[in-house]
Amino acid sequence: MAQELRNITISAPGFLGINTQDSPIGLNPAYASVADNCVIDQLGRVGARKGYELLTTNGPAVLGTSDGICCILEFISRANVTTVFSAGNNKIFTGITTLVEVTLPVGYIITANDWKMISFNNNVYFFQVGHAPLISTAGSTTLTALTSSGSNVPPAAAEAIAGFGRLWAADTATNKYTVYWSSLLDGADWHGGSSGSIDLTTVWPNGYDEVVAMTEHNGFLLVFGKKNILVFSGAESPNASLTLEDTIEGTGCIARDSIQSTGTDLIFLSTRGLMSLQRIIQEKSLPLNDISSNIRTDLLASLTQEIQANGHRKAIKGVYSPVDAFYLLAFPESQVVYCFDVRAPLENGSFRVTTWSAVNPRGFSVFADDSLYMGRVNGIVKYDGYLDNEVQYQMRYFSNPTDFDTAANLKFLKKFNLTIIGGQSTQTTLNWGYDYTSSFQKQEFTFGSSSIAEYGLTEYNTDGEYSASIIIQTPKVNSTGNGSVVTVGIEAQINNASFSIQKIDIHALLGRLI
Amino acid sequence: MALNDMAFNQALQTLPQNISPTGFNQTAFNQDAQTGANTLSGMLGTAGAGSNTGGGMGNILGGLLNLGGAYYSGQEDIKGAQQFGQQASAAAQQLGQQAIGASQFKPFTVTTGAGATTTTPTGGFNLGLSPEQAAMQQQLTQQAGGLFGGVTGDIGQASQDIYSQIRALQSPEEERARLQMQENLFASGRGGISSAQYGGQGAEEFGYNQAQQEAMNQAAFQARAMALSEQEQMLGLGKGLLGQAYVPQQQQLDALAAGTNLANIASTGARTGADLQAQLGGTGLEALLRSYESGIAGEQTQRNQLIDLLLGSGQGSNAVAGLLTGGGGVLGTEKSGSEFIDDVLGFDKGKAPSWLSGLFGG
Fold first, then answer.
1. pTM of the prediction?
2. I need a surface site. Which of A86, A214, B146, B311 has the fewest CB within 10 A?
3. Three-class DSSP category at A136
4. What mean pLDDT is reported for chain A?
């Protein structure tokens, strides 16, 4: 007797992002095992990330064979003059399209690109361990060094921030336990005025630790060690009232540039994964929940590949894009970027996460216009469009193995009905496999070649484009094979058009009991 | 001591026996005067027998001799008075010596519980303290000396000593405060703060150190003031002890004063007796001199009366004719005194001594 076809629908597949931590059996099919070059779009679907547009034209000439642009800072002076500083190839540049080297002090030699650029009091300060701090007055392209004068020794620190009306610095080559602060509103005075310092060796709860990063958040000065976090209050008058408000043990920061504030949360990378400090503050009496718990193993695996110096992964960069509502965490060595959707946490407290590949950014910066800029090997790129520097890139989605709630039956997949939003002449490959295999059966197809209507664009002497602004594709693919658990995947070559997976309907025939 | 009355009396008895207690031998003088008058009367007869001039001339000479004898007798009286003056002076000196001897200071000794004070003939005295009082005085003096040594001691060292004591008192509380501060600092995570604003340290440490330095400064000034005060106290105590050390001596002196008053009672009688003796002796001598002066004055009066008797007195209607000048000129010879003498005695005219011619009115 012919058996009834059973329709299995995966609505908004991958909507919950990647989850490689939980057992796939019984896992919500909204989780994905792979969501590469994906983001969670504005409608909660897995979609292709944007590409990037290379803005720099003289990248190879000035960057050579280096890692490219590692640091980017947009500085807007009081005179409303915008200057973009960037660093790479042991140089400091201004400009985006054309990178122009700044004028350094005579004899000043740069040996690394791990700059911390700070805009403070209409000046830009450049801090890097082993380097005398530099200052660009009001965005000047001529930098001067904050040289030592008598007892005034500006710290050649790896970490520096601006907060509470002064500069704060820590992590020098010889002292990784002292936090220095400058005089009020004077980033050049580190000895007189209201400048000062605090030795944290008596404060670390677990003995010795090293300062990796600092930030100002929620009225507190946060000092991140590798394994501990110190929460100081009274930083507005540190000499008189800087007080340890709280100490968070066991969780620190291992990447200075991973710290990003989302307005409500402070996100940073620790050895336990990506953490949200706001949650830690709220739940300081409870076990910590990291927001990367769904990919914890993968993330830590990527972490181990990063070059570290005393536990500090300097190359790891993070950025928060409020417009795109994601937090990016780039691992240059593993050439992967984790994209955390920060709209809302999941039930387990983690953020929905996808991955990006083929971007391999070395630095991030969100400019005043909320555009995301990235430093790459060949210069500064802008996160925009759906091509990677005019090259297609592949979006990949794979579900976790699912048994359709009938673990004891064989499943015979008969047909896939896909609902794809977007896409334009997009070569797509449907993958399916049974029983945890990674050798998928594939079916390639190309979405229609209709062009997206371009209202408002005048294209004389060309064929009119009268289709809808958003193309909805509903390809149907017949499938074969059987197995107890099924894995479904879609690989699409993003071709200058958005691509989101709205729904996957699977017609399957349930077979005998295994 | 009483005066030597016996010596005084003997001195008085040695005076010339022919001198009356008034200083004049009235009897001899009267006898001599009577003799002279009788002589002149014999020589000249009665006053009314002027015709017996020749026979009366011899009587006149006899009267003149008698008059000279009387004059001689007067000279002897003068010599006797001079001798009496010398003897009276010697008696007065003797009385003075006796008075000195009688009023001379006699040393005495005052003995109290604190010791015995002995006066010396030269007017001094020796304060003799008892061994106990002497030991007490020595002890007090030594203690006073020690205190005076403190007064003149090093004020800086004294201040430092007091400062150290004050700081020793303050240090425990400061240490507790420091520990409390350190606990608060490290509990609040501020233990490692170093700031230029607070001299290379945190605000709490700065405040603590500031308070400590203020306490140290205050202690230093307080120590200085206390050292000076203690020196003043030591000065006062030393002065007190030193004064107390001399209290036994002062008591001795007071006892000496009291003994002196008592001694004065005893010596006052002797000195008063000597004074009285001297006064009485002086009074006796003075009375003797006065009686002698009265004798001389009486003799002068008698001589003048005799002259008046012989030569008359008064002038004008009050003139009284003398024995020798009655009837014009001397002895009725109608000659002046000088002429009379020249004639009688054979002097060249105008060569008779004036004193002699004066006897007859010149």
1. 0.70
2. B146
3. strand
4. 88
Q: Which residue has the tokens 């995301």?
A: A372
Whole-angstrom distance, CA of residue A301 vs CA of residue A251: 18
CA distance A257 to A328: 11
**Nearest-5° angle of CA A22, CA A23, CA A27?**
85
User: What pLDDT score was predicted for residue A458?
Assistant: 53
What percent of chain B clears pLDDT 70, i.e. is strictly above it?
Answer: 70
Does A198 contact B186 at a Cβ distance shorter than 8 Å?
Answer: no
pLDDT at A306 over 60: yes
Task: Give the DSSP letter string of B202-214.
Answer: -HHHHHHHHHHHH
Rounded to whole angstroms, the Cα distance separating B173 from B175 reads: 5
What are the pLDDT digits (tens) for A418-461?
Answer: 888 888 888 899 999 998 888 899 988 887 665 554 555 555 56
User: B207 CA to chain A: closest CA distance, Å?
Assistant: 10
Contact B189 A230 (CB under 8 A): yes
- Residues of chain B with Cβ-Cβ distance to A200 below 8 Å are 192
CA distance B149 to chain A (A): 52
DSSP secondary structure of A169-218: EE--SS-SSEEEE-BTTBTT-SSSTT-EEEEGGGT-TTS---EEEEEEET
Rounded to whole angstroms, the Cα distance separating B217 from B170 reads: 12
Substitution target in B181, B182, B188 with the highest count of A β-carbons within 10 Å is B188
- Tens digit of each residue's pLDDT (9 = 90 or more) over B13-29: 554 444 444 444 555 55
- Model confidence at B1: pLDDT above 60: no
CA distance B275 to B228: 62
CA distances from B161 to A328, B37, B145, B228 (A): 72, 118, 21, 12
How far is residue A502 CA from its own chain's centroid? 24
For residue A9, count CB atoms less than 10 angstroms from its CB and return exposed for 0-12, middle for 13-18, buried for 19 or more: exposed
**pLDDT for residue B325:** 60
pLDDT of residue A280: 54
Say if the Cβ atoms of A194 and B197 lie within 8 Å: yes
3-state secondary structure of A326: strand
Separation CA B112–CA B115 (nearest Å): 5
Q: Are A21 and A400 in contact (CB under 8 A)?
A: no
Q: Which of A62, A53, A120 is nearest to A383 (CA)?
A: A53
Q: What ipTM, to 2 d.p.?
A: 0.77
Contacts of A139 (CB under 8 A, 6+ apart): A75, A77, A81, A83, A124
Task: Write the single-letter amino acid at A463.
Answer: D
Per-residue pLDDT at B359: 63
In this prediction, residues A25-42 reach a mean pLDDT of 87
Q: Which amino acid is at B332?
A: G
Cβ–Cβ < 8 Å for A178, A171: no
What distance in Å separates the CA atoms of residue B52 and residue B44, rounded to the nearest whole number?
A: 8
Q: Is the dihedral of CA B316, B321, B322, B327 positive or negative?
A: positive
Work out the average pLDDT over A137-141: 95
Q: Which amino acid is at B85?
A: G
> Is A113 in a helix, a strand, or coil?
coil
Helix, coil or strand: residue A422: strand
d(CA B359, CA B161): 114
Whole-number average pLDDT of chain B: 76
Q: Cα A484 to chain center, whole Å?
A: 37
Beta-carbon contacts of A15 under 8 Å, excluding residues fewer than 6 positions away, are: A30, A40, A44, A45, A46, A352
In single-letter form, the type of residue at position B142 comes to: Q
- Range in A147-156, A267-276, B24-33 with the lowest mean pLDDT: B24-33
Q: Which helix (H) or strand (E) holds B321?
A: strand B320-321
CA distance A190 to chain B (A): 9
Check CB contact of B182 with chain A, cutoff 8 Å.
Answer: no
Contact A507, A417 (CB under 8 A): yes
Length of chain A, please? 514
Chain centroid, CA A40 distance in Å: 14
Angstrom CA distances, A13 to A25, A34, A44, A127, stand at: 16, 11, 10, 45
